[in-house]
Amino acid sequence: MDYKDAFKDKTILITGGTGSFGNAVVKRLLEYGAKKIIVFSRDEKKQFDMGNEYGNDKIRFVIGDVRDKDTIFHAMNGVNYVFHAAALKQVPNCEFFPWEAIKTNVLGAHNVIDAAILRDVERVVVLSTDKAVYPINVMGMTKALMERTMIAISREKRGKTMLCGTRYGNVMCTRASVIPYFINLMKLAKPLTVTDKNMTRFMMSLSQSIDLVLYALTNGKDGELYVKKSSASTVGDLAEVLAEIFNYDKGIKEIGVRPGEKMHETLISAEEAPRTEDCGDYYKINPEVPMMDYRDYYFKSREGGSKLPTEGYTSVNTERLSKEKLKELLLSLDEIKEELKNFRK
Length: 345
Hints:
This protein has a domain at about 5-170 and about 205-230: 3-Layer(aba) Sandwich (Rossmann fold). The chain is about 40% helix and about 20% strand. It has helices at about 5, 20-30, 45-55, 70-75, 90-95, 100-120, 140-155, 180-185, 205-220, 235-245, 295-305, 325-330, 335-340, and strands at about 10-15, 35-40, 60-65, 80-85, 125-130, 160-170, 170, 190-195, 200-205, 225-230, 230-235, 250-255, 265-270, 275-280, 280-285, 315. Helix 2 (about 20-30) packs across helix 9 (about 205-220), helix 8 crosses helix 10 and helix 10 crosses helix 12 (about 325-330).
């Protein structure tokens, strides 16, 4: 889909803009003719490196924290669109410091949304995760609350700002995700450690995650959540295929499921399935609406709505990638191609 008309001459702010998503979406937005791209984050070193890499006057870097409402309000001046990607995402860190996750993932999101409304921003997309569905860890719980915050404020209809969101599965080759972790273990000549070989995860490329967010921004309405239709793989197959690709022979070691981990992930819950619509490459989860006759709503949904399984959309009931298909997918990623060039030079 061509998004040039949507972003030409627009000013876009990206919170957490020095992360994997921010770096990748900046490239797209420059291609689409954005007027200005504001990269808002806490890490001055990453901003310095990113500025040197791009050397583009259309990119403006702002040091700040979404926890500080004044800072994000100041940065939002003149902005048309916002991608809210700033978050604490590491499951163990959120487990040990839950109050920090609450301050960033929930209160920070509220600050971003409130500032956008006060600044008359046109559209905001918040980025969530499959861990927000039936959450069992702090990261998922705070992301679920972020979603509910977005939906609740969207019901208030304050100002002109449209608020919607996306949910991701596993985005391959992003920082701190499992694929770079496996590759780093190979560089250290250590066995690949997996918690449980039968654990399943959705597989999505970084490019697909950007497509999802752009689709949500250009098509979304208040309170909606968008999900990319994604294949899944077992963690064991992923480790084995990576070892095959890199011709690595140090073995794979199971270490057991860690606290806060699920065997399988869910992108759409069973409760959300009846109000989910098929949009081709994506699913749209419509928000629950107060004062609606729920019996009528659920009846209509079953007649003409989603064809999702009654248990929702999970990494078990989606398409399971064979090892051959998984290998083909991994070899198509630029990050894997680059790692293969430099591996054991």
